[in-house]
Amino acid sequence: MTDRADVEPTGDGSVGEPGSAHGTVSFAPDIPAEHYRFELHPGYIAAKSVEHELFGSGLANPYFRRIEGFAAGTATIGGRPLINYASYNYLGFCGDPRVSKAAVEAIERYGTSVSASRIASGNRQIHEELEAELAQLLGTDDAVTFVSGHATNVTVIGHLFGRKDLILHDALIHNSVMQGCLLSGAKRVSFPHNDWTALDRILTQHRRDFERVLIVIEGVYSMDGDMPDLPRFVELKQRHKAFLMIDEAHSLGVVGRTGRGLAEHFGVAPGDVDLWMGTLSKTLASCGGYIGGSREMIDYLRYTAPGFLFSVGMSPPDAASALAALRLMQQEPERVARLQARAEQFIELAKAAGLDTGHSRGTAVIPVVVGDSGLALFLSQALFERGIFALPIVHPAVPARNARVRFFLTTLHTEEQIAHTVAEVADVLRKQAAVA
Predict the structure, then answer these.
(1) What angle do CA 49, 50, 52 make, to 5 degrees?
(2) Whole-angstrom Cα distance, residue 102 to residue 77?
(3) DSSP 112
(4) What is the 3-state secondary structure (H, E, C) of 187-207?
């Protein structure tokens, strides 16, 4: 047996001892192949099995279709324009010439990257303006931006909480929150969806067993399009002396009279929520995430959060496009009103047609629940052939027998497009039921 320093890699990736023919002597012959060959990784094999189960019958894979140009109320795929319900471009600012111009001007002034973390390379004026105006919109002391919405939740939750703490989250919370919980090492407990009474019972029983307690909910849930009863959660947070965090990825620009989100919708003081999280990639037509909150917390995150401290700063064109969209949202509140009207129209027509829209409450996220994953795939494919692009959500992304096709509304959809879409969905399902 040789010392570690004497072991040499071989050309085929195995490890052999010096002097062996072509280095073919294995260093660890007892290690199973699935532990070092990714094509044998159990997760990969399981994923391929699901793929075969879903598409083995001949249905087309609807995911990763190539979009030509920007996606708004319509999208072009394979040279064919379709009514598009697969975009988070809620207020239509992605593709707006004014937003694009702001990004181009930022590139001309600052370049395409800040090339290092902001603490190492310095701020740009565009960063400071964006964060100041986000805080003003949210009604918080300050705000800080990150280069990814997903990473925002991961790094902030993972950094602010630890092994002596408890994190309580809605059962339907986003994956980014779950990953942040894992990183933190805190005790994690989920409560039934939107059930503040169940949360109250957990807090009553366990609050004193932990130092800090964080409650995490979403403004609009991306699978179901419903909202939490925010005043109830605020009351629980105050009574049990916990922190409250709201992920507003799908509620900024969507709910509230002027699109300011859940606080505006419910008339709650912004300071009653400790962490207002959101993304810049949906309503604000850019890429990244933000946290709004107290001056002390934001200052602490700027100097210590790993996902900010050790990550490159947001690119100038991303910051500029988000800032331009933020300003336009406030200048043109009619976009928010139109989006809300289109969502109400879709819900009303869907219910009149006997479609199951689940828990959606007229937000821009509306599922049509069909139950079976195969039927969801079939419906999506049939709609695609009829000029409508809407993607299926199947098990295990949602519970078994709860598959659906999900529709994201934008302010750019017309009344005629929505009426046509609902009629086509109902027709496909009716004809399929007749032959089933």
Answers:
(1) 65
(2) 27
(3) S
(4) EEEEECCCCHHHHHHHHHHHH
The two three-digit tokens of residue 317, written as one number = 């064109």
Residue recorded with tokens 């991303």: 318
Strand pairing class (391-393; 403-408):
antiparallel
Peptide bond into 396 cis (omega under 30): yes
Q: For 133-159, how does the pLDDT look when each residue is reduced to its tens digit (9 = 90+)?
A: 999 999 999 999 999 999 999 999 999
Q: How confident is the model at residue 2 (pLDDT cuts 50, 70, 90)?
A: very low
Separation in Å, CA 405 to CA 203, 273, 361, 413, 430 = 36, 33, 16, 18, 15
The pair of structure tokens assigned to 158 is 């993972």
Query: Look-up: residue for tokens 């609050």?
Result: 207
pTM of the model: 0.91
Is residue 421 within 8 A of residue 388, CB to CB? The reply is yes
Tell me if residue 291 falls in helix, strand or coil. Answer: strand
Listed residue (207, 265, 190, 198) closest to 231, CA to CA: 265
> How many residues are present in the chain?
436
**Vertex 51, ends 181 and 426: CA angle to 5°?**
95
- Which backbone phi and psi does 304 adopt, to 5 degrees? -135, -20
Structure tokens at 188: 């994690």
Both tokens assigned to 260: 């300011």
Rg (CA), the chain: 25
Other beta carbons less than 10 A from residue 249's beta carbon:
27
* Contact of 157 with 184, CB cutoff 8 Å: yes
**In this structure, what token pair is assigned to residue 139?**
């009604």
Give the angle subtended at the CA of 141 by the CAs of 165 and 113, to the nearest 5°: 90
Note the pLDDT of residue 27.
Answer: 79
DSSP class of 34: G
Q: In what order do the strands lie in the sheet with 80-84?
A: 74-77, 80-84, 388-389
Q: Which two tokens stand for residue 9?
A: 């890699």
The SS3 call for residue 148 is coil
